[in-house]
Specification:
Layout lengths: L1 H11 L16 H23 L5 H19 L5 H31 L8 H7 L4 H13 L3 E4 L2 E4 L1 H23 L9 H7 L5 H19 L1
Antiparallel strand pairs: 1-2
């Protein structure tokens, strides 16, 4: 049981480097980590039993290895529960701010005034969000110099306009890819593009752009 818990803890960690000090480099260190954890648990259990004779060694070994395993599940740098929660929060904040910028850009594109002041009520007409959450996103963009706050409302900066244009372009690229290459109906692609646009890398965006240019040339022929 002890070694099983230790092995689970090892599987959950992020990287499994090869260490030449172990077995002359013939085994990756993650094969030896369970044994190391078992040895550590045995030492801790023996020490506790030595310091407090009334305490049996076995249960303390199990407790120690369990703490190591649960600590890994919680604190692993990339796969741990805490790290995942932090990444999730970051992604949620990024999605919120990018959606706001895209909305500002598209409103400016529609009425021909990119630097027009927009009130909270106007924004919520197109992007229904709780007022507190929306205000947090607006203030975050203000700190990033993407928006400016005026008496009449919120206004895009030049940097904000450029970022909003980039997000809108990624959204439209993905919609075109889904409709032209995957043959998905246009009325089914918007929601998918809404989520994908926030995780498209520059390399993927460039590849999508090249595909769409090639598709356009082929259609003209």
């Amino acid at each position: 049981m002890v070694c099983t818990l230790s092995r689970l803890q090892t599987i959950y960690t992020d990287e499994y480097p090869t260490n030449d000090l172990y077995c002359a480099g013939c085994l990756p260190s993650y094969y030896l980590m369970p044994k190391q954890n078992c040895m550590l648990a045995g030492l801790v259990g023996s020490f506790v039993s030595y310091m407090a004779p009334a305490m049996p060694t076995g249960p303390w070994i199990v407790i120690t290895i369990s703490l190591i395993a649960y600590g890994s599940f919680l604190l692993s740098p990339r796969r741990g529960l805490l790290a995942r929660r932090i990444q999730q929060r970051k992604h949620q904040r990024k999605t919120l701010t990018e959606n706001i910028l895209k909305l500002f850009y598209e409103l400016g594109e529609a009425d021909g005034h990119f630097y027009k002041s927009r009130t909270l009520d106007t924004i919520r007409q197109y992007r229904p969000l709780p007022a507190g959450k929306l205000l947090q996103g607006l203030k975050r963009l203000q700190k990033q110099n993407m928006l400016q706050r005026e008496r009449a409302g919120w206004v895009l900066t030049t940097a904000g306009k450029n970022k909003g244009e980039e997000i809108s372009r990624l959204h439209r690229l993905w919609e075109l890819y889904l409709t032209h290459y995957l043959k998905i109906k246009p009325d089914h692609v918007h929601e998918d593009a809404e989520s994908i646009e926030h995780v498209i890398t520059p390399a993927l965006a460039e590849e999508l752009g090249s595909l769409m240019k090639l598709h356009t040339k082929q259609k003209k022929k």
